[in-house]
Amino acid sequence: MITVKAPEQYWNEPDLLFKSGSLIAPLGKTALIIAGKKALDTVRSIFLDSLDQSGIAYSILEFGGKVTTSEVEAYTVTALEKKADVVIGIGGGKALDLSKAVGGKLSLPVVAVPTVAATCASWAAVSVLYDDLGRSSGYLLNQRSPALVLADTRVLAAAPKRYLASGIGDTIVKWYETVVNSNDDPDGLDIRFATQTAKLALDRLHTHSLQAYETAGTGKVTPAFTETIDAVIVLAGLAGTLQGSTARAAIAHSIHNSLTFIPQTSGSLHGEKVAFGLLTQVVLEQRTEAEINQLAIWLHKLGLPLTLKELGIVQDPAIIAIEIARRFQLRENADKGLSFEVNESLLIQALQQADQWGRRIIQEAYTK
């Protein structure tokens, strides 16, 4: 069996939020809005005016914490108290993930309004969970994706370019993580489907990502920027949400999860940690020097971290690599289909080698 979860509608155009109320109204008339403070300030007047014009009543809850099981429960109770019939998430991944979790708990439609394109959270039918210290604590698999995604490209183009780089990094990872699980198993159609979708995203980013990154933060919506947004939200979201019976070895994301247990990385974005995880993965795979170099240079041009130091870690890489590898964990039996071995000893070596590789790429770029 293959499960494909996707929004009923995905909108992406400049100044989209001016008509957001009319698009949301068919889903419900009493909204609970869960939003980051900065995100809400960015869209408040336009978005709330549009809701008013469409006769949608709303309550606003600002959110700036961690998506924990206790927060999900607390916001779910509030949604019940407010008699909400639609949940609207505004902001980055955490606000959107919390909104999806609350909507999923109550079987309510969710509207995702991303104000940064740092992940595919506005599409994906999953909420990433953390503990109170910001450490990874698993995933909540929601029954469906948001019913409606409103990607106002004018808003997204005005967001700081660091967030777009994070989203690009998280999207690049999708193909590398998925393709290593591909095989000729008749039951592996989900993997082949996801691999091709992720490859399309990778190809579009090869063509457009650097140009999009260059203009990010200016508010200018270019064709390259729109192509990049679609790759980050739609293609990465679809590739990650396709599910079948095959257990996938998500190596870069598993390294990300381990990195969240190191307090110094708390200032790094999801896609930044995943990018370093990807560099480690391609070293672990023993890809060619030319392949690794090409990938590392691309990530560096996007301002993504290539070293543990860039993630905020000041300890000796040889020591911290042991800690990261010790907490690294794949899904059960997920490594069975890999063509290369993954164990703690090899991962420690790969982490150190990735850090060394990153330092060399940075030094070479600096001296040019």
TrEMBL record:
Cofactor: Zn(2+)
Keywords, comma-separated and alphabetical: Metal-binding, NAD, Oxidoreductase, Zinc
Residue ranges occupied by any Alcohol dehydrogenase iron-type/glycerol dehydrogenase GldA domain in the UniProt entry: 7-153
Top-level lineage group: Bacteria
Residues that bind NAD(+): G93, K94, A95, L96, D97, Y130
Record Gene3D superfamilies: 3.40.50.1970, Dehydroquinate synthase-like - alpha domain
Cofactor binding notes: Binds 1 zinc ion per subunit.
UniProt GO molecular function: metal ion binding; oxidoreductase activity, acting on CH-OH group of donors
InterPro entries the UniProt entry points to: ADH_Fe/GldA, ADH_Fe_CS, Glycerol_DH
Binding site for glycerol: D170, H253, H270
Protein name: Iron-containing alcohol dehydrogenase
Similarity comment: family membership: Belongs to the iron-containing alcohol dehydrogenase family.
Pfam families linked: Fe-ADH
Database matches in CDD domains: GlyDH-like
